[in-house]
Design goal:
The complex is a heterodimer of chains A (293) and B (393). With 293 residues, chain A is mostly helical. Chain A has 13 helices and four strands. Chain A has a two-stranded antiparallel ribbon with strand order 1-4. In chain A, strands 2-3 form a two-stranded antiparallel ribbon. Classes of the chains: A mainly alpha (293), B mainly beta (393).
C-alpha cells in the first residue's frame, strides 16, 4: 500500500511541475535558435552583396524581356506573347520589396554601428529601388513599407504613398548618401563585398549624385530644380565617363550568369535578334553584329 | 454503443462523434510591400462529425461449417465554421483554382476556374458557354470559381467475410469508397496532346455534316453537345477529313469549341434584355483552328472524375494442418492481394492514388501534400500472390 502511495505522490509532484513550469513566457526564449545568427549581429559586409547583386540583376533583366521586346531588339521564337506582341500581364513588385527588406536591415545595422560608408550604400540603394518602384508603378507603399516584422496593422498592410512623397524621399536619401560618401570614411569596408565599386566612396558619391540628377530631372516639370542640379554639376562629382559607370562584374556565384546563357534547347535559344535590327546592322556593315548574333 | 447478441453471433458497435478544433495554425499572406510574404496566426473553428459502425455476424454455424461476415462503415465530414478577418477561406492547394474551403463549407471542396455562361434563364442559350475568339471566356476571380467536387468520400464501407468448412477456410476482404471526386493532371497533360481515347470518343465529327445538320445535331442536346460538364467538354471537328475535321489552310484537322459570342449590354446583374448572343456552331463567325489548339488547359472542370471504387483487397484459402509433435495451429494458406479493382471513373487511374507529395507548404496550411490531386501518380498496381505457413509452438 505504501509503495502505491509513493507512486501517486511522485505523479502528483510531476504534474505540479508541469502545471507550474509548463507554459510561461520562457516559450519565446525557447523558440530562439542559439545556433542561428541573430539579425542584430548581422555583418553589414555579408549583407551588402545580397542587396547589390539582385538589384543589378533585376535592372539588367529590364533590358532583356518584355522591355527589350518593346524596344524591338529581340524577338522570341516560342512562348512569344509578351515579348513579340506586348501581351503583358501585371508585373508585381515582390522582388523590389524583398530587396528593400534586406537593404533595410543593412542600413539599420550600419546606422547603429556608425558605419558611414555602409549607411551611404544603404541610402543609395533604398533610393535606387524606391525610385524604380515610383517610376514603374506611381503611388506605392513607402513610409510604412518593409516593416512587417514590427507587427501592427499599419506595417503588415502598408498604405500607399503618393509618387511625389516617394520621389522627395528618394532625393533626400541621395543627398544624405552623397554627404556620407563625401567624408571619405571607409571604416570596416571590405572591398570584395562592394560588387559595384570595390569599396570606393568617391565612386559611390558620383553614383549617388548621378541618381540625384536623374530624380531632379524626373520631377523638373512640377518643381523648380534648376539650382539643385546646377550645384551638383558645378561640383563635378557625378558620373562623367563610362569607366565610372555603376556596373557589376560576374561574381563567380552559380546563379550569376548572363541571363541568355544556353542552358537547354527550349530556353534561351528562343531569343532572336529582330529583323529590323539585323537589317540595319548589315546595311551599315556594323562590326558589332558578330558579337551580338 | 456496443451490442453482442445471440452468443456473439450478431455483433454491432456504433459511434457518433462531433469534434471542435479551435485555433488552427494558418499562414496568412501579407502584401509584399510589407517586406514579408506571410504570417502565421492562430485562428478558426473547424468541426468534424461522423458515424462509425461495425456490424457483423455469423449467419451460418452448423456442424463444421461457419460463415462470418463483418462490415465497417465510416462517414465523416469536416466543416470550416470560423476563420478570421484576414482569412475568408482555407486554401489547401492551388492549381487552376484548387482545393479551397470557404467559411461554412466542407474541407475538401475542389474548384475550377469559372467558364462564362449565358445567365439569362429566358434565353434559348441559357447556360451555353460564351466564346471569345476560339475559346471559352475564363473567369479567374475567386467569386466566379466553380465548385466541381470534393475529394472526401461520402462514405467508406469495408467488408470482411470468411467461410470455414472443416479444415478449409476461404476469406475475402473488400473496400468500397462511395462518392467524392479527384482531379487528374495526368489527363490534363496527356489530353492536351490527344493521348486519350476518351476525348476522341467524345469528339463531335462536325465535318461529316452539312452546316444545317450540324446546328440541328448540336442543339438537339445542348447539355451533351455544347455545355461543358464535369469530366467532359464538347468540341466539334476531327483530326482527319474522314473523322470529321474541318479544313484549315488546306489540312482537314480543324475544330471549334461550340457556344455563343456575347455582346454585353449595360452592366445590370439581373436584366439581360440588352445582351445579344450570336451562335458559334460552325456557321459564320465561328473560328476554326487546328484541333491540337482546342484544349481547355486552364480549367479543372474537364479533368474532374468520380473517385468511387470497389476493391477486392485480399482473397485467401487456407488449410489447417494436423497436429505434429508439439506444433499446434499449423496453417497453410494461399493468398492474393489487389485482385480486382472497379473504378467509377473508368479512366485507367486508381483514384486512391489521387494525391501528390510536393516540396513546399501548400496554400495556407503546413501540409506539403495535395489531396484529390493526381499528377502522373500512376504506378502500375501490383496484384501479389503468395503462400503462407503459420505455426504456433
Amino acid at each position: 500500500m505504501k509503495k502505491i502511495f509513493n507512486k501517486k505522490g511522485i505523479l502528483a509532484v510531476v504534474l505540479t511541475l508541469f502545471v507550474a513550469f509548463g507554459c510561461d513566457d520562457q516559450l519565446a526564449e525557447m523558440n530562439q535558435n542559439p545556433s542561428a545568427i541573430n539579425p542584430a549581429d548581422g555583418n553589414v559586409n555579408m549583407l551588402m552583396p545580397l542587396v547589390l547583386g539582385p538589384a543589378a540583376q533585376r535592372y539588367l533583366d529590364l533590358g532583356l524581356n518584355n522591355m527589350a521586346g518593346a524596344m524591338q531588339q529581340v524577338q522570341l521564337s516560342g512562348w512569344a506573347g509578351g515579348v513579340n506582341y506586348y501581351g503583358w500581364s501585371g508585373s508585381d513588385w515582390t522582388g523590389y520589396y524583398d530587396n528593400l527588406r534586406q537593404n533595410s536591415l543593412m542600413l539599420k545595422l550600419a546606422q547603429e554601428k556608425g558605419l558611414k560608408f555602409h549607411e551611404g550604400v544603404g541610402l543609395t540603394m533604398r533610393a535606387f529601388l524606391f525610385g524604380q518602384i515610383a517610376d514603374y508603378w506611381g503611388d506605392a507603399p513607402y513610409t510604412w513599407a518593409v516593416r512587417g516584422n514590427e507587427g501592427g496593422i499599419e506595417t503588415q498592410y502598408p498604405v500607399y504613398d503618393s509618387q511625389e512623397t516617394i520621389y522627395m524621399g528618394v532625393i533626400e536619401d541621395l543627398k544624405n548618401a552623397a554627404a556620407l560618401f563625401a567624408t571619405g570614411d571607409v571604416t570596416f569596408v571590405q572591398a570584395t563585398a562592394d560588387l559595384y565599386f570595390n569599396g570606393d566612396p568617391a565612386a559611390w558619391e558620383r553614383f549617388a549624385n548621378s541618381l540625384l540628377i536623374r530624380y531632379y530631372v524626373r520631377i523638373s516639370d512640377k518643381k523648380d530644380v534648376k539650382a539643385a542640379v546646377e550645384s551638383i554639376v558645378s561640383g563635378g562629382k557625378f558620373i562623367q565617363s563610362s569607366t565610372q559607370d555603376a556596373t557589376m562584374d560576374y561574381t563567380g556565384g552559380s546563379s550569376d550568369q548572363w541571363p541568355l546563357i544556353y542552358s537547354n534547347e527550349t530556353s534561351s535559344t528562343r531569343y532572336q535578334a529582330c529583323k529590323t535590327f539585323i537589317d540595319q546592322m548589315v546595311s551599315t556593315d556594323d562590326p558589332r553584329l558578330n558579337v551580338l548574333v | 454503443m456496443d451490442l453482442n447478441l445471440f452468443n456473439d453471433r450478431f455483433r454491432f458497435s456504433g459511434t457518433y462523434y462531433t469534434m471542435d478544433n479551435e485555433n488552427q495554425i494558418f499562414s496568412v499572406p501579407l502584401p509584399r510591400s510589407s517586406g514579408y510574404s506571410s504570417k502565421l496566426i492562430n485562428a478558426g473553428l473547424i468541426n468534424s462529425q461522423g458515424w462509425e459502425f461495425t456490424i457483423g455476424g455469423t449467419p451460418i454455424q452448423k456442424g463444421n461449417l461457419t460463415w462470418d461476415i463483418d462490415f465497417n462503415f465510416t462517414k465523416n465530414s469536416t466543416t470550416v465554421e470560423e476563420l478570421t478577418d484576414d482569412l475568408d477561406r482555407i486554401i489547401l492547394w492551388s492549381e487552376n483554382a484548387g482545393a479551397i474551403s470557404f467559411i461554412g463549407d466542407k474541407i475538401g471542396d475542389l474548384y475550377s476556374f469559372g467558364i462564362a455562361q449565358v445567365q439569362d434563364p429566358n434565353s434559348e442559350y441559357y447556360k451555353w458557354p460564351i466564346i471569345d475568339g476560339t475559346e471559352w471566356v475564363r473567369l479567374n476571380q475567386v467569386q466566379d470559381w466553380e465548385k466541381v467536387g470534393n475529394f472526401n468520400p461520402d462514405f467508406l464501407l469495408g467488408m470482411q467475410t470468411s467461410l470455414t468448412f472443416g479444415k478449409f477456410r476461404v476469406g475475402a476482404s473488400f473496400d468500397w469508397r462511395q462518392g467524392g471526386e479527384f482531379i487528374s493532371y495526368t489527363y490534363r497533360y496527356g489530353e492536351s496532346d490527344w493521348k486519350s481515347q476518351r476525348q476522341i470518343d467524345q469528339l463531335i465529327p462536325g465535318g461529316l455534316y452539312s452546316q444545317d445538320e450540324l446546328v440541328e445535331l448540336l442543339k438537339s442536346n445542348p447539355d451533351e453537345n455544347i455545355i461543358p460538364q464535369v469530366g467532359k467538354y464538347p468540341r466539334v471537328g476531327g483530326h482527319t477529313q474522314e473523322t470529321g475535321g474541318f479544313e484549315v489552310d488546306g489540312v482537314y484537322d480543324g475544330a471549334f469549341v461550340p457556344g455563343v459570342a456575347q455582346t454585353a449590354g449595360e452592366d445590370t446583374p439581373d436584366d439581360f434584355s440588352d445582351d445579344v448572343y450570336e451562335e458559334r456552331l460552325g456557321g459564320p463567325g465561328t473560328e476554326i483552328i487546328p484541333i491540337t489548339d482546342t484544349y481547355p488547359w486552364s480549367y479543372n472542370k474537364n479533368i474532374t472524375f468520380d473517385a468511387s471504387f470497389i476493391k477486392l483487397r485480399e482473397l485467401s484459402i487456407s488449410y489447417k494442418l494436423p497436429k505434429i509433435a508439439g506444433i499446434s495451429n499449423a496453417n497453410f494458406g494461399v493468398f492474393t492481394r489487389n485482385l480486382m479493382l472497379w473504378n467509377a471513373a473508368k479512366i485507367g487511374i486508381d483514384s486512391e492514388r489521387a494525391f501528390q507529395a510536393t516540396g513546399g507548404n501548400q496554400g495556407n496550411t503546413a501540409s506539403q501534400f495535395r489531396q484529390g490531386f493526381e499528377r502522373q501518380n500512376v504506378m502500375p498496381w501490383s496484384a501479389s500472390f503468395g503462400f503462407k505457413l503459420d505455426f504456433t509452438f
